[in-house]
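@channel anyone free to eyeball this complex?
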Amino acid sequence: MEVLLEILKGLHPEVDFETCDTLIDDKILDSFDIISIITEINTEYDVAVPAEEIIPENFNSAEALYDLVERLQDED
Amino acid sequence: MLFTSYSFILFLTVMFLLYYAVPKKCQWMLLLAGSYCFYAYSGIHFLAFILLTTVSTWYSARRITRIQEQQAAYLKEHKASMDKEQKKRYKASMKKKTKRWMLTCILLNIGLLAVLKYTDFVISNINGIFHTGLTFMNFALPLGISFYTFQSMGYLLDVYRAKYPAQENAAKFALFVSFFPQVIQGPISRYNDLSGTLYEPHSLEWRNISYGIQRICWGFFKKLVIADRLLVAVKSLVSAPDEYMGVYVVLVIFFYAIELYADFTGGIDITIGIAQVFGVKLAENFERPFFSKNITEYWRRWHITMGTWFKDYIFYPISVCPWMLRLSKKSREVFGKAIGKRVPVYLATAIVWFTTGLWHGASWNFIVWGMLNFLVIVISQELEPLYAKFHNRFHVSGKTWYNAFQILRTFWLMGAIRILDVYRDVPLSFRQVGSIFTTANWNELFNGGVMRLGLTMPDYLVLVLGALVMLAVSLAGRSGSVRDKLAAKPVPVRYLVYYALILSILVLGAYGIGYDSSQFIYNQF
Amino acid sequence: MKKKRVIALLLLICLLIGSLWFLQRLFMPKYVDEIFEGRLIEEYYENAGGNDVMFIGDCEVYENFSPITLWEEYGITSYIRGSSQQLIWQSYYLMEETLQYETPDVMVFNVLSMKFDEPQNEAYNRMTLDNMKWSMSKWNSIKASMTEAENALSYLFPFLRYHSRWSDISTEDFTYLFRQEKVFHQGYLMRVDVRPVTTYPAATPLPDYQFGETAYEYLDKMVALCKEKGIPLVLIKAPSIYPYWYDEWEEQIEAYAKEHDLLYINFLELIDEVGIDFNTDTYDNGLHLNLSGAEKLSRYLGGILRETYGLTDHRSEPETAAKWQEKVNFYYEMKADQYRELEEYGYLKSYGGRKPEE
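replying in thread with the prediction:
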């Protein structure tokens, strides 16, 4: 989780990723951010996020994102 | 059938009356029949193409769902007896099958679109580069092929991704592909959004009819009173680019922006309005785009369904696909983190804008238009840290005048890029825009130059008033539905508005032979 | 609630229909200040009935014959159903329509329109068709006349054609919204001014001199219609210098007239006999005759018609004479007024004349 938060803070240091759960709905993360996050996740966690998982439910909060990462790691 | 034609109005009237006369569970069948009649009107032989796309997509999607169901059943049954590795291998082999169906169908349909639409473009380029004399094929394009193909492929990809199961009923699917209000110019609908509202029975609800018709009339107003009128001036300006440089190019940008907006949003209003009368809800395609403060916001508000389609089916898949991730890793190793992390995003964006340009038309001006958009997006992305510093220092963000500055900047920038649409020739477009800064002829605005473009003083008056009305409606729409607000007004006020709207379309609309009023001046025989 | 809605809706529809009907009348051109020819068709209906001779055709009839002269010299009652660039099928349908209102003793048709085999000009179509009263004849005429750009709906609802005049509305559109003013003399458009013939046109060779199939089709129909009603049809060619009347065309008409046993008079060959002087008898360099010329031509034709068809001299009938006396008065009033204008302005200011410096 720490690594993930670091990735997120690296893109938008001003955002409180611990608590915020409307990252997509409030347009805090845009499509560029999402791609950057996915490539970083690929580097750090060695999982590939497929395009169909790029939905608001998975990216609205750091927690949801981490759940996604764990799920993908599981399937690996 | 053009929306703004007598035959279409007759067709609509008949469809509306029949729709609420037939038994409710047959309503979608009536829409299907009507959509095919509408489509056949554009040329019976074109039916073959939309049928091919419909049948191939329907069939492929069904097979994919079948395999996915098979997979789910098998895994459930053998949950205990399979280890992780076996499950993985099984899933991979199933995926391979579904992928094959998906790719074949896409190849067929996109291939068909590509051949029909782009063959002559390829030929002209080959002729240009290799000095060959290949003859053009002059394929006639089936109505709405770019729209219905993309809409169908979106559905196919969604099914492939197991977002929802395929539609079993071929006729119902055929309606999704050919639904007549949207087949000409969108919006590009998502199956999971449209299917519910499209197939379910609809009872006669006054609000749908009234709101739908209001929206249709509003669309007609924008198209006939504003867009078609302004088109006369735009055509004059563009047909003699050597004569009309400098400030005239500014006029082209301005007029074309308003004309395209009125025409496109007007057409969409008619589309969504028609659907609403049927009780079907279509997605919005525009959201006050000229109030955008930057290009990214603009593309979230202009031709929305196209933007989201390209985002979901091209941008994301490309930017997270394995070879892209590998490329990104490689470039990170070779060029460092800063460049490495930009590679997937910018490369995917470039591909998106290249294809977006290409989708709009088979000629270089569209491709250049797409790439210019890409360029501006990249530049504004790279300039962000600079902007951030600026805003930290100067605290102007949010201030009214700064918002106004941003809005105007975006309007003129997008407008300048957009004229590639209207001059159609890349070097010419650049030259014309350049002439704004090199040709000092601002006095032309005041010496009657604008009166020689085919529009009279009364025409300009109508345009100004019409634009103001559009602006007022836009502004009013920010805080809620305009039709709701209208419905809250007392009956005489409301009906007066309807009366004025309909009458102004009929009297002021730029339709009919008389439109060029000068033609009515006879010469003595 | 629902009832209120229905009533409001009905009111809206009625208001819209009423406004559109009013606006249609407002926007339709009145042809009062200029292009009077647009009123020609309209004026027939109040003068229908009791006309022994009917002239049908284009400007070569309504500019070259004076029914008042026919009356004064021979007591012949007549009417000219002409209009600008009237095409042969339009003439046929006008003929058909006229027979719903009266049965003349003789029909006279000017054959110039044989040269047009296809729809020509939307503006001229409008002048001939818009003010015909609704009938099957009008509908058939519309269908035969429409150019490619035209739409039958815009004839049913001229509003759709003329709405673009919203920015050109003048006081005359309001003044003549419901009112009409008499302008013609049993379909004759009077011009007293003189503009002599200066040059005679040369014949530019044509690729094909044969009159078209459609033209012959409608000529046949006219012949058949007149035969059915027992009305003799007289073909004429008015003595206009322009457009050029080719010998090859002349041959065809002569042959046709012979074949169908019709009287055909080519006035171009009778200029001296009629006594036409192109220095004094035309107001537009020979395209059309002026009053002086028209009276001469009418005198001549009247004599032939009376002799050949034994037309009644109605001057002894008190009712008819009284009715025609009014027409005669109006005729001489206008004549005097036109001469007055010529003296005052040097040209026919309110009768469509052009300023001399042009």
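from a first look: The helical segments of chain A are 2-11, 31-45, 56-59, 62-75.
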